[in-house]
Amino acid sequence: MAPKPASAIPVEIWGCCRSLVPYFTFILLLCAITSLNQLRYGALHSRCAFMINSGSSMDHIIHLPSGSILSSQHAAAHQASSYNLPPSLLASDQSFISHENRLRILIGILTLADQYQRRSFLRLVYRTQQVPANVQIDIKFVFCNLTKEEQRIWVALEIMLYDDIIILNCTENMDLGKTYTYFSSLWEMFKDEDDQHSESSSSRRPYPPYHYVMKGDDDTYFRLEKLAESLKPLPREDLYYGFVIPCESKDPFKHYMSGMGFAVSWDIVEWVRDSDIPRRHHVGPEDMVFGEWLKMGRKGRNRHNAKWSMYNFPEPPTHCSHELWPETIAVHLLKKEPRWIKTLKYFNVTRNLKPSKLYHIP
Q1: Residue 302 — φ and ψ, nearest 5°?
Q2: 332: how many CB neighbours lie within 10 A of its CB?
Q3: Least C-beta-crowded within 10 Å: which of 15, 84, 132, 134?
Q4: How far apart are alpha carbons 21 and 28 in whole angstroms?
Q5: Could you give the residue ranges of the DSSP H alpha helices within 114-236?
Q6: CA distances (Å), 175 to each of 75, 271, 332, in order?
Q7: Are residues 280 and 319 in the same domain?
Q8: Is the Transmembrane keyword given for this protein (predicted)?
Q9: How far apart are CA 247 and CA 32, in angstroms?
Q10: Beta bridge partners of residue 166, listed in sequence order
Q11: Helix H or strand E encompassing 312
């Protein structure tokens, strides 16, 4: 058999290469789509092995604290480890907003270790809420040291699944310093563990870790979007925010904010940690004592009375209560299920339920 001409070899190779062109084109297209989606949802590291510029890299990862309610779908990857990421009720604004530029709010709901059912219910209530595109809200359940064997199992499982629990180093109490322990412990919990002088800042937390820190009761219903809208225009230093007590008062400088839910700016959190005033005077009604700290320390010069967007449940009528209304930020004294149901029904919390053949809810 006569040997093939030398010119035939390049032709065959060329034909083979030409047949591979569609595959390379398809790979490039996938990489382009992936890159666009990653930029859109805030994941700035490339997962494509095939890159046009092999010398370039996009290894910047945005680190978000677990237990966060975020508003755009770039947070979807965190859903499995963070109960606060609404799986379906995400804000429509999909533009990328850096972690540093978000309004960051921490809500610590003071409760008891044994309140498993209440925590499960509250997770449903808060997980299905929507927040503005430039807001991050972290919700944590706060209680003192565990004392029972079953608590060590159930609470540990909750933490593994939701990562939304803070266990304080204290003995469970209401007016013997639990609120002080909560606020004074936060700096140590959320301080940046990285070397502050490191050249790389991509993995550091922004400062402050939260612009506002709130203490709330587990019988209070917070409407997160309204809360964020109310806090957003306020000063981020020396702020004291809430429902002023006594109920008839409208002067936030004369008395103190109700324990149903009050917030302070991060600089006051640091002051509580460092000052001798709260350290030596933390026994008594927790909301009243907190107000006395600020008065004695001349703190909280910026105050905001959120009356009447925060109030007690309307029944029975009192000076602290009124009817439910659309501008509500918080409703207090929801101690029994019928009150919760009436409140949630009024605010139509199931309005975004998608139709499906799998269920029928009239």
Answers
A1: -100, 110
A2: 21
A3: 15
A4: 11
A5: 116-127, 149-162, 178-190, 224-231
A6: 38, 20, 19
A7: yes
A8: yes
A9: 59
A10: 142
A11: strand 310-312
Q: For residue 45, is it within any domain?
A: yes
pLDDT one digit per residue (tens) for the chain, 362 residues? 445 444 444 555 555 555 655 666 666 666 666 555 554 444 434 343 333 333 333 333 333 344 555 543 334 434 433 434 443 334 434 344 566 789 999 999 999 999 999 999 999 999 999 999 899 999 999 999 999 999 999 999 999 999 999 999 999 998 999 999 999 999 999 987 544 444 455 567 799 999 999 999 999 999 999 999 999 999 999 999 999 999 999 999 999 999 999 999 999 999 999 999 999 999 999 999 999 999 999 999 999 999 999 999 999 999 999 999 999 999 999 999 999 999 999 999 999 999 999 999 98
- The C-alpha atoms of residue 46 and residue 97 are separated, in whole angstroms, by 19
Residue position matching structure tokens 């209401």: 174
Q: For residue 15, what are the contacts with CB-CB under 8 A and spacing of at least 6?
A: none
Contact criterion met (CB below 8 Å) for 201 and 311: no
Are 163 and 294 in a shared domain? Answer: yes
Looking at this protein, which amino acid is placed at residue 118?
R
Domain total in the chain? 2
Q: Is residue 105 a contact partner of residue 137, using CB atoms and an 8 Å limit? A: yes
100 plus 120 within the same structural domain: yes
Within-domain flag for 4? no
Q: Are residues 164 and 234 in the same domain?
A: yes
In terms of domains, do 32 and 106 share one? no
Q: Are the beta carbons of 334 and 220 closer than 8 angstroms?
A: yes
Q: Are residues 23 and 169 in the same domain?
A: no
In angstroms, the CA 140 to CA 163 distance is: 8
Residue 17 and residue 106 in one domain: no
Longest dimension (CA), the chain: 109
Q: What is the CATH number of the domain that holds 135?
A: 3.90.550.10
Which of 107, 105, 102 is CA-nearest to residue 133?
102
* In contact, 246 and 320? CB cutoff 8 Å: no
